[in-house]
Design a protein that fits this description.
Blueprint: E1 4-6, H1 8-16, H2 32-36, E2 59-60, E3 80-83, E4 98-104, H3 108-113, E5 118-126, E6 132-140, E7 148-154, E8 157-159, E9 166-169, E10 175-178, E11 181-184, E12 190-191, E13 196-200, E14 206-211, E15 216-223, E16 227-232, H4 234-240, E17 252-266, E18 271-282, H5 283-286
Antiparallel strand pairs: 1-3, 2-7, 3-4, 4-5, 5-6, 6-18, 7-17, 8-17, 9-12, 9-14, 10-11, 10-13, 13-16, 14-15, 15-18, 16-17
The structure holds 6-O-phosphono-beta-D-glucopyranose.
6-O-phosphono-beta-D-glucopyranose (BG6) binds at residues 52, 65, 72-73, 155, 197, 229, 231, 254, 256.
Length: 289
Amino acid sequence: MMTSLLVRKPLVELTKGVNGLKRYSPEVRGSSAERVNSFLVSSKAIFKPPKAIRGGIPICFPQFANHGPLESHGFARNRFWSIDKDPPPFPAATSSRAFVDLILKPSEEDLKIWPHSFEFRLRVALSPGGDLMLTSRIRNTNTDGKPFTFTFAYHTYFSVSDISEVRVEGLETLDYLENKERFTEQGDAITFESEVDKIYLSTPTKIAILDHEKKRTFVIRKDGLPDAVVWNPWDKKAKAMADFGDEEYKHMLCVEAAAVEKSITLKPGEEWRGRQELSAVPSSYCSGQ
Ligand code: BG6
């Protein structure tokens, strides 16, 4: 029998668990302390359902934000998931990764608000070098012949030293949606001096977040997820959020690999795959890659 657990907590715990990487490889880049601090979890985060945890990497499914009739970001981030105790192995070439497979299937209650049967397999894997890879496989298991449609995001809360010293590379000159209106980004790398909530469209598969103060760069590589959401609530919205510290916006940035503009449709038996790989490297290491 599978064990029930709250996926939101394990994702936080697993990312803390990169400490354990030392067991897998002597070649871990950066200190374990640096690794542990890669993701922000708010000091005011609420770990009790039905509130989503403010931080880590919430999974937005089957709806991103308020782009549909469901609760914000869909229900997957608020559910108990199961661990698959006998998961399919990785291909031989990547078998050195440590991983866990988490499974979500809809409950009777979920079917009342979103009447579609699915199996969601989330593989959380760590490479020997310390990269975190999340692979979502979502399968339509409807037996009534009906397709379903969804939007999706890995809502990653990156921890940064000072948001005003951070820049994001890879999104310049792209189109984006803001309050559902379309604009085009002008100029160079994205920097931050006020609230931002944008959905960049048709983005490259690699995006970099440069943290000058820490001399650290997060590299996001993604597959099957054409869009990238960039969010920081800034001071006023931060104050209005009960589960977020007033000053925490200064030390976080969400860059979310996503499929929002063009929703995904699956016929019965079809499967979709969306992957996000995260590495944290010294800034000089990243330049020119
Ligand atoms: C971001 C959205 O992904 O998540 C924002 O772009 C939203 O619009 C933010 O405010 C936080 O959402 P929530 O539901 O976790 O408060």
